[in-house]
Amino acid sequence: MRARTGIGLAVVLALALAEIRFLFPEEESAVLVATAFLVGALAGLGLARWVPASAVIPVGGVGLVLFYPLILAALAATVLTGTLYETVAYPVVVVLLAAPVAVAVLVACRLAEGLGLPSRAALAAGTAVGLALAFAVSAPGADWLHEPPPARYAEIDDVRGAYGPVALGDTRAALFAAFGPTERASLEEPLSPIGAGDEFEGPNFVPMNAEPEIYRYEDASFWFENGQVTGFELTSPGARTSRGIGVGSDLAAVREAYPELECGDAPAGDIATYPYCAGRLGPGRWVWFGGDPVSNITFTSAGFE
To answer: What is the spatial distance between Cα 8 and Cα 15, in angstroms, rounded to a whole number?
Structure first.
């Protein structure tokens, strides 16, 4: 293999790995992850049988750059025609995620051949790369799936409306004593905890001041009015409410533990929704459980709108 071809293959492999690293933190479904890697690995091994090394660079490079806008355009066109969202979205997401995996496996096969390995050994090397990538992003605790950090405290008190030692109505000093001092979040920052990433299944609207005083931590965020905590949001596993519900619990368990709450579907953009249960627990105490399994627990003293 010429040095120029080897460098080109290495660049395409780097692009494929970068796309995998970029795309998979947004997708936390284990089923979609497994399906995407299976489809991608099989496609890459199939392509390796007839795509020569010299063609991998333009084919893989163009595919990585242009494939996604085309897929998203097809998805948008299909949704606009009124086709059921889930029917179209899930297959498209699988193909979208599988594409860089297929390119990575294909490049691994060609690089193995360039090292002098016979065809069967090269295919085996490509398969090993696909399996290694699959394990890297889907193994328990894999950072690439952006699992939120563990909760700092194990208790969420329904009666006090508290996470650990910090309750609704407490002062900024009490918060800093329990969680450590931190800078006030800017208006451009989201309300959710830092460790929540882009995942959002919290309340669509929480009544608060026009310029809220918000403090964000890895596992939780708190907001204040008149110097007192009026709400907090938790997105990390490990903490449980007084009735045994935490991040990761099924929404069916929430309905059983909190029969007084109202459950339904909250809007997430123009089309998508996510399930939730929310309502009043007592004077000045409202709770929200978003997602199934639950990914967001929010307490406020002002309710939700």
So the answer is: 11
And the tokens for 260? 């007084």
Instruction: Judge whether 137 and 145 are in contact, CB under 8 Å.
Output: yes
The residue written with tokens 């929704």 in the block is: 273
Q: What is the pTM of this model?
A: 0.59
**Tens of pLDDT along 87-128?**
556 677 777 777 777 777 777 777 777 767 776 676 677 667
The DSSP H or E segment spanning 280 is: strand 272-282
Q: Which residues of 122-144 are buried (b: 16+ CB within 10 A; e: fewer)?
A: bbebbbebbeebbebbbeeeeeb
* Per-residue pLDDT tens over the stretch 25-68: 545 566 677 777 777 777 777 777 777 766 766 766 666 666 66
- The answer to whether 22 touches 142, Cβ cutoff 8 Å, is no
Given a contact cutoff of 8 angstroms between Cβ atoms, the answer to whether 148 and 196 are in contact is: yes
* Residue 215 and residue 222 in contact, taking contact as beta carbons nearer than 8 Å: yes
Helix H or strand E segment including 88? helix 85-114
Which two three-digit tokens encode residue 84? 């059921």
| CA gap 110, 82 in Å, rounded | 43
